[in-house]
Design a protein that fits this description.
mainly alpha, about 425 residues, 4 domains, 25 helices
Length: about 425
């Protein structure tokens, strides 16, 4: 069995030798159909003898190629799927159009009918579209991945629109069957339609948002799950909001934090004030404010002992005032590296960076601290002592310190 990763002409050669279509290529792989179409055109030019009548094992079933003028295709009796597949990919549009007349009621060839719907030749394209328009929706769904891939071509929108309409109007099970597709575009379309049709319960939406591998599906389901929550829906907290809050993806956690307001649990946003993601922290502050709590005093209290919640320093910087600068600056000397790094980020957020405070941090053993200090100093790189930076370039220095020195020297136009 060949796959879409094989050289296109290998499948073509097998079909020309009389191998059955489903043995010559992987008919479940959209890439195989596209590769077959390409392979026939290439081999028809390079090895036309493969497609002459004497190459057909059934004896003059087909005749097409440069020895026929004008190009024609003819069969002594009804051609098999393999022969039609070759004709449907022929470089000459007249042959492709003729082959389409034999492709009706041939489900095995539907993949090539889909490909022909984006054909550059108008008559071929219109004939293929007429055939596809009569195709049962369940067969369209079976070729969803190919349809969506062909849909990216300049003339490929017809099949994609046909599939989308079929999934929107057809049985729910038809769209639901594609939700677990391994093809990214198919899974996205199926989830979009399932959300539009409200086919998925809110619990499944939350679980999908928290666990799905595709970020578009995650966002789509997270937004739908939050929107489906009833105001004050305390009973949905565990099954819907908790999975969102537990996600490793910041976008999904932020949706979960936002959902806390809808279920009336504003205070539960407090732990997310020190989330590692700025988006999640911002959502937590918004939810607390909606519940009547000012987050700034909470940040100040956390900064008194930030070892377990280092992001308190950057969080205070994001929402604090000028009078908070000294509190954040004091954390530059904290023994926990992550606190020092967050303190630098907090000073940047407060627009209170002082070169003298951050220069010593370029020599820090923590790469995270050095990276934050470097980012903060880049706008003033020409004011950082070059002697210090050149000393950091020594071979015995840790890599993160050498990288920081190079970035600052280049920013100061000392290095090119």
């Amino acid at each position: 069995m060949l796959t879409g990763e094989d050289e296109p002409y290998e499948a073509v050669g097998r079909l020309a030798a009389g191998v059955a279509l489903n043995q010559a290529l992987d008919v479940t792989d959209p890439g195989s159909w596209i590769a077959l179409d390409l392979g026939v055109r290439e081999l028809a030019a390079r090895q036309p003898e493969l497609f002459h009548s004497n190459a057909s094992p059934s004896g003059r079933r087909m005749k097409w190629g440069p020895d026929t003028s004008p190009p024609t295709v003819s069969w002594l009796h009804e051609p098999g799927d393999g022969e039609l597949a070759l004709a449907l990919c022929h470089p000459d549009g007249r042959i492709r159009e003729t082959a389409l007349d034999h492709a009706e009621e041939r489900p095995a060839l539907l993949g090539l009918v889909v490909v022909r719907c984006a054909d550059w030749a108008g008559p071929v394209r219109e004939r293929a579209r007429a055939l596809l328009a009569e195709t049962p929706p369940h067969r369209l769904a079976a070729h969803a991945a190919l349809i969506l891939r062909v849909g990216q071509r300049p003339r490929g929108g017809f099949a994609q629109e046909l599939l989308t309409r079929a999934l929107r109007a057809g049985p729910a099970a038809q769209a639901e069957a594609l939700l677990d597709s391994s093809d990214r575009a198919t899974a996205r379309l199926a989830h979009r339609i399932a959300v539009e049709r409200r086919l998925l319960p809110v619990v499944r939406l939350a679980q999908t948002a928290a666990r799905h591998r595709d970020v578009v599906v995650q966002d789509l389901c997270a937004e739908a799950a939050v929107a489906a929550l009833g105001v004050g829906a305390f009973d949905e907290f565990t099954d819907v909001v908790v999975p969102l809050l537990a996600s490793r993806q910041p976008r999904i956690r932020s949706a979960g934090v936002t959902a806390l307001r809808r279920v009336g649990r504003h205070a539960d946003a407090e732990p997310y004030l020190t989330d590692r993601s700025a988006v999640v922290r911002a959502c937590a502050r918004w939810v607390l404010r909606q519940g009547g709590t000012d987050p700034a005093p909470l940040y100040r209290a956390l900064c008194a002992d930030p070892a377990n919640r280092p992001a308190a320093a950057v969080g205070l910087g994001e929402c604090g005032a000028r009078e908070d600068v000294d509190l954040v600056r004091a954390l530059l000397a904290h023994p926990v590296p992550q606190v020092r790094a967050c303190a630098v980020a907090g000073l940047r957020a407060l627009e209170a960076v002082r070169i003298g405070d951050l220069q010593p941090l370029l020599d820090d053993a923590s790469a995270a601290v050095v990276q934050q200090a470097t980012a903060a100093l880049l706008p003033w790189a020409d004011r950082v002592p070059q002697g210090l930076l050149h000393a950091l370039l020594a071979e015995d220095r840790p890599r993160h310190q050498r990288v920081a020195a190079i970035r600052l020297l280049r920013a100061a136009a000392v290095l090119s």
